[in-house]
Amino acid sequence: MTALLPAAIRAARKGGVFFLHGDDEYLKSVAAKFLVERFADAATRDFNLDRLHGSEVTVERLASVIATPPMMAEWRVVHVTEAEALAGSPRAREVVLQAAKSSPPGLALILQGTVPARSKARFYKDLRRVATAVEFRPVPADGVPAWLVSWAREEVGVVVELEAAQQLAGAVGTELGVLTQEVRKLAEMVGDDAPVDTDAVRRGGIRIPRQDRWAWFDLVGGRRIREAVEGLPVLLQQGETAVGLVISLSVHLLRLGVAVEGGARALQEALPAWQRFAARKLMAQARLWNRAELVGAVRGLRRLDQLLKASAIDDEVLMEEWLHGLVVRRRDSVGAA
Question: Which one of 11, 47, 159, 198 has the fewest beta carbons within 10 angstroms of its own beta carbon?
Fold first, then answer.
């Protein structure tokens, strides 16, 4: 998992205060575990690791633990979950901010919490300024299968084929904690040196959707429009929303646009680190488009999004019209050439 962690976490060597916040609880917990393992010496962990809950700990207890030096080790680690609960106490805020401004020698204080939506509390602004603050945003739904492939390679040492990851995400959802558990089960089932492929997903008893959204994006990107039209009603019947498909499809086509305009290097730079292995597939799709076609397609998606939110016309009809429009524009482009 190390390679998928933010650089500020991977580079942590000097202790101090770490503020892990954001809406993705799984990624925050992974980062917190990494920091605990980095700073808490296994041989003396019973003496030098304190786990506290912000909603339960008293200010006196918090201040005492922070001020206690490490015993027979280099670091004392204090891991506080629900750290947002500390924001309601002026004294707790003072203790935390003072530790961040001038950390006691040998202290690694890990604050794991969620900043309330639209909060303008000065405490969080000050904490971001004086602590090592990292925000963990949820992995976008369209990137979850690629993230899972990278995670499996780094964390479990198993090859998960992208199509299998797409089927898993389509079957069990995009919650990372659940997906990683499923991959561990499948990796144990297939055994050493065997990949987790689509057959393994089926043998694992996972109910696979008849059409997964990521394979459908590849149909559109690969200009397999007839198949995309056939798969569209299946997606909608499975609970996908037209607006959600348009948003993710826009991202997909914009990435193809980056590839058309700037080539493989520009595409690599535009992709998150955990998704760069998919660049070859995207480049192959990009070769099927020209700039004008992609511009027209993306503009059409913008109009489609507006119609889906305002028109009384059936969503499936509107999306089919956009898909058929890709074929028409291609014919016009070829005819003009």
Answer: 11
